[in-house]
Amino acid sequence: MLTIDDFSPVTLDDRDFFLDLLRRYPQQHSDMSFTTMACWNHYANYAWARLGEGVVIMSVIDGEPTFRGPIGPRDPAALEETLDLAVREGCPSPYYVFDEETLAWVRSLYPGLPFRSDRDFADYVYLSSDLDELPGKHYLTIRRHLNRFRRECNPIVEEIGPEDLEEVSEFLAKWCEWRHCEESPVLAREKEAVLYAMEHFAALGLSGLMIRAEGTIRGISIYDALNDDVALIHFEKGLPECDGVYRAANQEAAHRLAADYIYINRESDVGVPGLREAKLRYHPHHMAKVYIAQKEDLAKRNEGGQING
After folding, report:
1. Class for the domain spanning 124-287
2. Which pLDDT score, from 0 to 100, does residue 234 have?
3. What is the model's pLDDT at position 245?
4. CA 48, CA 46: separation in Å to the nearest integer?
5. Please, is 207 exposed, middle or buried when counting C-beta atoms within 10 Å of its C-beta (0-12, 13-18, 19+)?
6. Which fold is adopted by the domain 4-114+294-299?
7. How many Å apart are CA 194 and CA 80, to the nearest integer?
8. Are strands 230-238 and 263-265 parallel, antiparallel or unpaired?
9. What is the 3-state secondary structure (H, E, C) of 184-233?
10. What is the pLDDT of residues 191-244, one digit of tens each?
11. Measuring CA to CA, which residue among 286, 191, 205, 298 is closest to residue 237?
12. What contacts 162, CB < 8 A, 6 or more positions away?
């Protein structure tokens, strides 16, 4: 029987193991990225346990455990153990599914088990070519803003190398000062996550770019691969001196990624209205949705009969 004691904290030393696992069982949502787990571990307290040939992931936020998986071969017995654990140890909403195929499989085993979709945490996934080329009338306003930004700020775009990490960290300190990170728990957590990414840039296999104006970094974008087809933008930051730097970071990252990835995942809007409007303005190709099962429903999941498969 799977128990809490079977879980070990996710650490940077687990990266090779997870990269191999996620290569064999590709994921669609940013929250299933190893880089996400590593950078946000201070907040979400990720842990993992082997179960059969798969892996179950636990996250504990504000003392409330949630579970996902197993990631691995379709194993109804392992799923049953995971759901049992979610009922015994989880919070009121303890079980998460991050892709449509897994959702369909779980529903085939438990036809009466309801899931709700959480729009606030659905990732925006765009065609890389759209973000790179900004084609047609839908992107006309964005193209105009970018042209003005380039005229007025005369930016220089550079890849982030090991020699730049200290300067990027100094830029992030300025960004936090401007955004008053210490006054906002959300921004304070994000500051810790992005600084972790800078401190472990090479070990995490990250890539990125910086945009300079008048010799000073004005914006950055940090990214890696979510799977063979999808790149994931983990962090995108800009200072206010040059209006349009966020749009420029978006397009410049897409320009570098479009040759290798069909799609770019730009994460969720976490329910922030202004952020939602900004992300919708770029016309996502699709959303990578999140589905959640409630503890009371999980506890009754077998009452209508289980389909073994």
Report:
1. alpha beta
2. 98
3. 96
4. 7
5. middle
6. Aminopeptidase (3.40.630)
7. 36
8. parallel
9. CHHHHHHHHHHHHHHHCCCCCCCEEEEEEECCEEEEEEEEEECCCCEEEE
10. 999 999 999 999 999 999 999 999 999 999 999 999 999 999 999 999 999 899
11. 191
12. 201, 202
The residues of the chain that CATH labels 3.40.630.30 are 4-114+294-299, 124-287
**Closest to 95 measured CA to CA, from 287, 303, 291:** 291
Cα(207)–Cα(257) distance, integer angstroms? 10
Averaged pLDDT for residues 154-183: 95
Tokens linked to 250: 């978006």
Q: How far apart are CA 86 and CA 297, in angstroms?
A: 11
Q: What is the DSSP letter of 138?
A: G
Question: What confidence tier does 303 reach under pLDDT thresholds 50, 70, 90?
Answer: confident
Spatial neighbors of 70 by CB under 8 A, at least 6 apart, are 51, 52, 54, 55, 56, 78, 79, 82
Cα 260 to chain centroid distance, Å, stands at 19
List of long-range contacts for 199-208, beta carbons under 8 Å, 24+ apart:
199/165, 200/12, 200/38, 201/160, 201/162, 201/165, 202/162, 203/12, 203/15, 204/12, 204/15, 204/35, 204/38, 204/39, 205/15, 205/35, 206/35, 206/234, 207/159, 207/160, 207/256, 208/159, 208/160, 208/168
Residue 268 — pLDDT band, cuts 50, 70, 90? very high
> What pLDDT band is residue 306 in, cutting at 50, 70 and 90?
very low
Q: At what angle do helices 165-179 and 185-199 cross, to 10 degrees?
A: 180
Please report, rounded to a whole number, the percentage of residues in the chain having pLDDT higher than 90.
95
